[in-house]
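User: Could you check the structure of this?
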Amino acid sequence: MAKPATRAQLKEYCLRKLGKPVIEINVDDDQVEDLIDDTIQLFNERVYDGIERMYLKYKFTEDDLVNGRSRNLTTTKTDNNLGASPGTRTLSFEEGRGYLTVPDHIIGIVGVAPIANTYVNSMFGFRYQFFLNDFYNFYAYDILNLEMTMQYIETLEFLIEGKKPLRYNKVQNRLYLDLDWNRVADNDYVLIDCYRALDPNTYTKIYNELFVKKYLTSLIKRQWGQNLMKFTGIKMPGGVEFNGRQIYDDAQGEIEKIEGEMLSKYETAPLDFVG
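Assistant: Sure, the predicted structure tokens are below.
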């Protein structure tokens, strides 16, 4: 029990740290369950051990192509007070629908592998023609010249083709691909470089993470103090008086300290800077 491996064991561990069963912890089970969810969510979003880098291979379907090549038309009306004919103008905007719906556990996307295109991969492409005409001369080159040549080819491809722009919205679980969907064929593949949140029910060591145990204990303690604050000033039999404010303030200080340690020791770097 000192090393919780389930949600229930983590809950009991934290309550014991607060004094159960010697003293009664005045926190409802539903409140504790909510705090566990909050702790796991913070662990997945902010702590580097709560995520995993992975690569998703996705095959385009006919429905994807139809969706990507279609447009949403939005019409708005606005007052026009300028010009010779003031009045109401109707404006129409088109919005692309080229997106893929990614799994809910994906929390960040780094990039997408380049999609095959005719310029690079056909017999008329630069790379193909280069190897066809000059590869026989490589026996006279050293490895440094070969590496410089390969970097030169990649630079040309980047300047001519560029990166495929993408946008990702976690709330919608949508990965927008801003590209020419007419060049994408059915059954083509795309490789998505992304990060996913680890599920504690699968990776049960999460329940035994020091950050999770300390943070959840302090959250329960703060909730306990908040619940008791309504009884401040009321004396119980024997002259006992609840001091919910003190418990709340102590817990708040612990939470701030733990969050400060998280920022300096455990926090995940911004996805654009993760190597």
